[in-house]
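Sat 14:20. Reprocessing the chain from the morning session after the first attempt stalled halfway. Input below, unchanged.
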Amino acid sequence: MPILTSIIHRLDKPDAETPATLTCAERALASTPELEALLAGVNDSFHAKPKAWGHFGDTGSSAFAAGLSEYLAETADFVTWSTRMAERIRDLVDAHLSVGGHLLFVHYQHGERQYVSVALLHHRQGFAIDGALEVVETPQLNLGQLMLAARIDLAQWQGGTSRQYVSLIKDRGGKKFAEGLRELLGVEEGVDASGETRALLKAFSDYVEHEDLPDDASREKTDAVIDYASTQAKRGEPVTLDELSELVDEQQPKAFYDYIRQQDYGLSEEIPPDKRTLNQFRRFTGRASGVSISFDSHLLGNSIEFDAERDRLIIKQVPGSLKEQLKQRRE
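Finished this time. Tokens:
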């Protein structure tokens, strides 16, 4: 994960009543193994948080986007742009948070893509062993406490077709704080990650039912889909319908993709996966005494109920093909 350029400024805010003060660095940092390890830790924490996805507004009013464009066009330097943004972030922190921290601005490459990330790193008191082998208190970065962080996929932004190249932490410091961060960046939400993930999983469930797959095959494909989407979420990368379709059916790699388009689920070519939604989607399966049952876990409590006291499942929406068989049996 090569770091192309980075800088760290400091925001001091002792308590909620005291105004925040900003101390800006005068030069960019040299890339070191320690800095790269810090970036990896920040990214891991960032990808684990609930996020909003969007794009810069079309009005050209985003000072963040304008300054970033100047830096990428080499008409302004990274230090100047980050300093201007740090001043705006100071005002946001002053209005909504009771603690400060260190502001990390970093331009880096991951694989074939380049990103720019901004994160406010908070501290906590920890312990260390000094040279005299004594225990001493020492401040440590608390990467798990990210409340302000955003990442811009430069390739998607400059490509001009995506509406989800900006990702930012959502609702960590309260709704007003999240809204303030979105306005500071000049970002308009372009996609609902949770809703898109639910729609994708609904499409997959419908496809499994449409193809009338055996239980073992259904369970295997479900696990493969969830594992792939969860891995993409951990990496901070989108799920692509082409890759997912190939994963669902290697023999007919376009079958699931064509099914989605024919049924018009309204899904984008790339979908930012939502980890919470994925974690709710697993299949329950069971077979005994000539009865085989398999259903997606998110249906439990909705169209399927489990009565533990009476040891029974209640199915509220019987599949069409099964309903017809039952009707014919009664006749």
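The chain has a mean pLDDT of 84.
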